[in-house]
Amino acid sequence: MPPPRTLKTHLPLELVPPSFWEQDCKVIYVARNPKDNAVSYFHFQRMNQWLPAPGCWDQYLETFLSGGVPWGSWFDHVRAWWDARDKHRILYLFYEELHKDPRGEIQKVGRFLGRELPEPVLETIVEHTSFESMRENPMANYSTVPPFILDHAVSPFMRKGTVGDWKTQFTVAQSERFDAEWAQRMEGSDLRFHTRL
């Protein structure tokens, strides 16, 4: 396709084709706090019939912490992209900030792409990218995907979209275990997440 092209990927940094960097591509990376990410991924893996069954939450949490989930270790993934942002044209966004200030974050994306968004366009984007709007939109909620691929009876693809839902899933012991793993795996990094708003 002729440029500009838009690609979406879940690849870890080390698997991105070298041409991304050779061609000086712009990358927008969105990261979510690890606890909410683990819970969301657990429910996604439950409903996604093409992925291995996640087992119970206790088992899944250990699998998540060990990096044994599809696309590998969350810790390695977010840290590698965070560390690369000073070497490449990477806009590193946080799900929590998108939730807290969608307008400001959308403006940030526009500026990164060299576009100033007129007010009506900005308002339309804010409206159409809200969780509520996307949950009702078959092009975003994957409700048209057959249940032998994504079984919405198990869990909807667009489940809650909140920040801090991990508190309904984690036990205190699991949260403390997760925090200890975070401290070890992210030692020396200035990458920080909000686990509640």
From TrEMBL:
GO terms assigned for molecular function: sulfotransferase activity
Annotated InterPro entries: P-loop_NTPase, Sulfotransferase_dom
Every Sulfotransferase domain range: 1-189
EC number: 2.8.2.-
Localization in the cell: Cytoplasm
Keywords from the UniProt entry: Cytoplasm, Transferase
Any one Gene Ontology cellular component term annotated for this protein: cytoplasm
Keyword NADP (UniProt): no
UniProt name for this protein: Sulfotransferase
Source organism: Chrysemys picta bellii (Western painted turtle)
